[in-house]
Every structure is written in C-alpha cells, then in structure tokens.
Please model this.
Amino acid sequence: MLKGIRTVEVEKDARGNYKHVRLVFGPHYFVELHRAADDTVNFVLGATHHGFKADASEIGGELEDFISEIREAHPNNLVD
Model:
C-alpha cells in the first residue's frame, strides 16, 4: 500500500505568485489550493476523484464553517 507524501505540485503565475498547489498522499488522498483570477482561494480535499471544496478567502468563511462542523462531529480528533 502506498504511504507518505507522494506528490507535491506547485504552479506559479508569471509574477511568481502561487496559483495552484496540490499534495497527493497516502493510498489515494489529495489536498489542493487554487487561487482564482479574482484572488479568491479554493481549498479542495478528496480521495481519488471525489471530495469537497470550500472558499478559503475569508476569516469566518466557508472553510472555517466546515472546520467547525468537522471538529464538532469528531471531538477526539481536535488539533489546537
């Protein structure tokens, strides 16, 4: 079975700003960050070809709501 961090992909724009970051790890998991043209940031978490995305552009935004929901549902896995 595949283990560890398997792939790290980084894409920058012409000015050297990060545009896309992708980590592939474990048997089939991935995390991605995408910066859109309007400078919003999308966070994507998945397994193989399915998962979820959340807007990560603001404090108290969509990603923070998801984190709060997951923390509430899984109190034994909290990280502070």
Summary: Residues 35 and 41 are 5 Å apart (CA to CA). The chain has a mean pLDDT of 96. Residues 62-73 form the longest helix (12 residues).
